Predict the structure.
Amino acid sequence: MKATGIVRRVDDLGRIVIPKEIRRTLKIREGDPLEIYTEKDGGVIFRKYSPMSDLQDFAAQICESIGANTGHVAAVADRDAIIALSGAPKRELMDKPNSQELDKLMESRKNYRYQQGEAMVPAAEGSDKYHLGVAAPILSQGDLMGCVMLLLGENDSPLEEADQKLAQTVAGFLGKQMES
């Protein structure tokens, strides 16, 4: 655990303010759920909660199936990072923070398909090797949870509309799984 040197008081309603710098660094947005852990020595740990983490194994199986059947790199991301991947080395993308461009795309809640001549959208921060071929937001009860992506390498040609429909179908399915 790393000390920040910041001290905050608990108010009369039991609330504490997380400083803006820490929220920005950890990508904690207004309304994000935080999981609370306690330690034996009296410490309290707040960890950003991702409902997608409950589906991580399932998402990995879906990625493997998509990758095997399409020949493309398949990935699922929550709102912060790639949580499931198939068809690319895990060390290159797995658990890497989403790129700012991907974050903006997810926030728009629109489906995306790369077109020849457009600027390439990297999947993860600091990774220029893979970019989005198609992406579909995962929505559960109207809330954005993440996205399903088929990724392209540096020399791959754009994907077809059928690939986009596949990503949309899987995203819809994952969203429904989170509701139950």
